[in-house]
Design brief:
The protein has about 475 residues and is of the alpha/beta class. The protein has helices at about 45-60, 65-80, 85-95, 100-120, 155-170, 185-195, 210-220, 230-240, 265-280, 295-310, 330-345, 380-385, 400-410, 425-435, 465-470; strands at about 5, 10, 15, 25-30, 35-40, 125-130, 135-140, 145-150, 170-175, 200-205, 225-230, 245-250, 255-260, 290-295, 350, 355, 370, 370-375, 390-400, 415, 415-420, 440, 455, 460, 475-480. Helices cover about 40% and strands about 25% of the residues. The structure holds NADPH dihydro-nicotinamide-adenine-dinucleotide phosphate. NADPH dihydro-nicotinamide-adenine-dinucleotide phosphate (NDP) binds near residues 387 and 455.
Length: about 475
Amino acid sequence: MATMEKLSNYIDGKLTPPVSGHYLDNIEPAAGTAYSQLPDSDEQDVALAVAAATRAAPAWAATPIEKRSALLHRIADLIEQRLEELARAESIDNGKPIALARTVDIPRAAANFRYFASAIINFTSQAYVTPDKGLNYTLHQPVGVAGCISPWNLPLYLFTWKIAPALAAGNAVVAKPSEVTPMTAFLLSKICIEAGLPAGVLNIVHGLGNKVGEAIVVHPDVPAISFTGGTATGQRIAAKAAPMFKKLSLELGGKNPNIIFADADLDEALATTLRSSFANQGQICLCGSRIYVQQEVYDKFMDAFVAKVRKMQVGDPLEETTKTGAVVSEAHMHKILDYIRLAQEEGGTIVAGGERVVPEGRCRNGYFVQPTIITGLDIGCRTNQEEIFGPVVTVQPFATEKEALALANGTGYGLSATVWTSNLQRAHRVAAALQAGIVWINCWLVRDLRTPFGGMKQSGVGREGGMHALEFFTETKNVCVKV
Ligand code: NDP
């Protein structure tokens, strides 16, 4: 049997094996088999990475902004040049359809570098003049070494969404991708070497969350942690980081409502709801997993929605025509299937899907779940309260706007919400009343990178995106000069 490719950490500008010499298998979810190995790193590797970052940070902070910006543009260029290789790697690593990786994930990773390469040039200070007294001005200074920890669902997209602003703002970075999807982060290391990023400015340490992630979080020389992942992990990170007074940005889970009023354009609502429910097998933190439809149009919507979902084909993510691929791991597949069983125990009816799919050929051992629609559950049950993070939605009718809002706001999460209506006043009124960090009206997943992004309630603390991210990765000092 051919030996499997071994991925490396990227520390101090070099591809580096883990100190322990231990590796973990990297599984291709569509095939259900290991296809490479990643470093099973630990606190020793994190210590080396933080030391390299600490050495590199002062010179990087002193590098003229234009030069930092040019280097980030160069990384974006190389990502674009390697689009096909990266999209294939992400599809194999994650199980997502290659067409999605090619058109969304990888272009967005390049866009993250490009956007922050430009944003840093426009990152301004403020000045406040108090006549005859003083001039106050703000000074944004890099925090030093930033820790960035990201999840598996949009591997390169979310990894670069943190790394790019941290680097642009003049920090050195120690980053950990999800152990479940390490490949594109590994390829990014090679791209950074080729781009000429100075040694130690970006360090990528692969391995398990409770070893590598936690070692980054508790390291005394990493004063800022930007984390995207599950709410339980976020709680643990907050508990560890708070006594050390670290800066924290936590982008956590969601249980997002999708409200469809009777006055909506139903065709558009239906087409977009299919995407917002099942894109990336429902493994996008912004997917709408609770759909509320006004009584007058409930039957009409459901007839069309159920018919379309029953026709959705699940298959090999490397096939160009596949729209629904594999879920990310065997454990995650079982978690999703357990939730579907729980929904039935709670009195729910499966009106579409509900089963594991076993394709023929190379994917026969892969982790596939049918797109699933469940009805008949009330808001208090676990199926409607807990994040499933798979191709599973619940649907429920509502009578009034007040009832829709009570349902929508009736969980501990508050990441995003989608509203379908042609009534302008209602759109604004409902947007203001929804407890969610982002509200889409008659659209989904449309976002300008300059706008703030983050959750309310258990969906997170802090805002990423645009100048918010640059502010997070800098200390803002207030200087007052007597006049
Ligand atoms: P996890 O919370 O399990 O993991 C996220 C990252 O944290 C991974 O790199 C993980 O490593 C690491 N990690 C795990 N334990 C620790 C620890 N104790 N200390 C430090 N780091 C740790 O999330 P998932 O990877 O399962 O991602 C899915 C979750 O992410 C969902 O809840 C989803 O909603 C959320 N998410 C939120 C987004 C947002 O913007 N709000 C966007 C995308 C996803 P390892 O992989 O080795 O466990």
